[in-house]
Amino acid sequence: MELSENKALLAEYRKQAKELVSQMTLEEKVSQTLYRAPAIERLGIPAYNWWNEALHGVARAGTATVFPQAIGMAAAFDEDFMEQVAEAISTEGRAKFNMQKRHGDRDIYKGLTFWAPNINIFRDPRWGRGQETFGEDPYLTSRLGVRFIKGLQGHDEKYLKAAACAKHFAVHSGPESLRHSFNAKVSMQDMRETYLAAFQACVTEGHVEAVMGAYNRVNGEPCCGSPTLLLDILRKEWGFEGHVVSDCWAIKDFHEGHGVTRTATESAAMAMNNGCDLNCGDLFANLLSAVQDGRVDEKRLDEALVSLFSTRLKLGILKEEKQTPFDAIPYSVVDSDAMRALSREAAQRGAVLLKNEGGLLPLDKKKYKTVGVVGPNADSRRALVGNYEGTSSRYITVLEGIQDYLGEDCRVLYSQGCALSEKREPGLRTGKERLAELKEVCALSDVVIACMGLDAELEGEEGDTGNEFPGGDKPDLNLPGAQEEVLRVIADSGKPAVLVLLSGSALAVNFAEEHIPAILQGWYCGAQGGRAIANLLFGEANPQGRLPITFYRSAEELPEFTDYSMENRTYRYMKQDALYPFGYGLSYTDFTYTEAALSGEEIGENGLEVSVTVENTGHRTGTETVQVYVKALLEDGFSHVPNAQLKGICKCTLAPGEKQRVCVRLPKKAFALYDEEGRLMLHAGEYRVYVGGQGPDERSTQLTGKTVAQLRAVVKSEERM
Q1: Does this model's pTM top 0.90?
Q2: What homologous superfamily does CATH list for 337-549?
Q3: Mind telling me the catalytic residues?
């Protein structure tokens, strides 16, 4: 049993919280609704700052293990490993909390309430914060989100190890520059099918302790004061029992950006009355006058505080004496050898091999006397970490990782080639003064490794320091600056070449697809990323990642950024072929699928089971990502029916010649679709179930030369679920 299942203890925590709140004055109650909650010494309540971050490691509070950015970990398509990483993050979080408490440090970024994961859907590759998400697919996001939460919160039957927070609720994915005033207009079908699915799973399956509202409005209602989202759906429909926190200073947007209220007091009242319990910001200070004026019932304020203090009781941080099994976690675990090894493993698992013409990779270091490493991200620490990052005790860039790996065995030549973007060209430089050096490095090298892409100053959150593009969103999908020209120089050299992309989003690398033999998508691969990339390039590790997002050929293929309809967005609704499709990724070995079968043809109460035999028919040990997709073949009259959708994942590691029978359970819900009114319906008719190492799209077949198995299933009668 874990705490989320211990109903009696949860009720006791709420009882204790209610008793505590009943002893507070109105002024004290209001003070506890702000993220910087002061001490109430007469009641023995210590000060607590609710704001902490742990997107891919404990962030912004000194040394911690910097894991790959969330999108890179999502590319592993591995639920078990995601929970393992989150468990490691919470271990470091407790270790740092224990240390800081001993020294009386209760400042920001020092608590155990982590505002992660970000489970918004990465619907548009221009969005700067897409790197924080688990990709574009609701099913994958749901599965990874639930397991990240379980890893953070732990499995103790009495206490939470840390408190996770699913954000940003809801329908939030840019544009960043408009988020304080933007109204996302969404159909009920898209709302349920795409934007709410992962949140529902995190609440009902993951038992997430907190939910953070988004900045934007949804269909006219500001998310942090939305009765539809926070009361009707979150509390009443899903039975959420944790607390709701506003995004930072989002409540101020009610009157300053959205114009739905006139004053700060009205905004605070609107948020509190509609289910927001905690304010990241200072607007809830106005609740004192709001209660006194009758705008907010004090009982509603009490209700919010009971939720907040229940969380602190679950964490075991209201009393000073040792009481939780996590109090003894020592600071020595932070950024330890074991943690760094896990970070390196995460980077290796998430990297996606996009192209490997002629089997160029893995490189055999015995064949080369000189290796050229070039490009603006080759020796960049910023390109390792993404945003919402911690501070590592050591960063290993791609250049350093290759140098360390090759040692004295061969010469490594380096040229930056160009700046990452035109704005980073210093002084009077033109962006081309390094091309002569680049050409010489190519001429002298037996193989050239080019490291290109972006960093978190080119894509990020609105307001992040140093954003080069307005709001943090990308204007297009192209490699910025002179990077494309550098690739052309490399291609013209005639030398074997590998492109390593470090980015948090999809890039339209059309030239590279045509002219560069090998491409590896490394994401923002964490502080150990350079070592992981070297291991992959030279065959110490075998790529197993799959794309959690679609790589488009051009931004011109995309709908307007402000259009929140899913029509022609992501693999689920796009009509054109991708450059690289969702679910795609290559390996250094080969896997063969045979004997695919369903447990039956008719979809019953328990759904169906898909089984298939996977064999490693290559020459290296490798890990395969078995993917199961479902497509409804409905008759005319049904509109907005998605393409085949991911509904099952299984990882299997096989030695050469080894076979494994893989089984994936598809619940009945996996075949259901939301209608235009947002009702989940299981329609009568025929369905296709696809199983293989990729999606069932034509582009994946073109890239891999493989097809996936197709199986037939039927539903005899329509049913509302």
Answers
A1: yes
A2: Glycoside hydrolase family 3 C-terminal domain (3.40.50.1700)
A3: 247
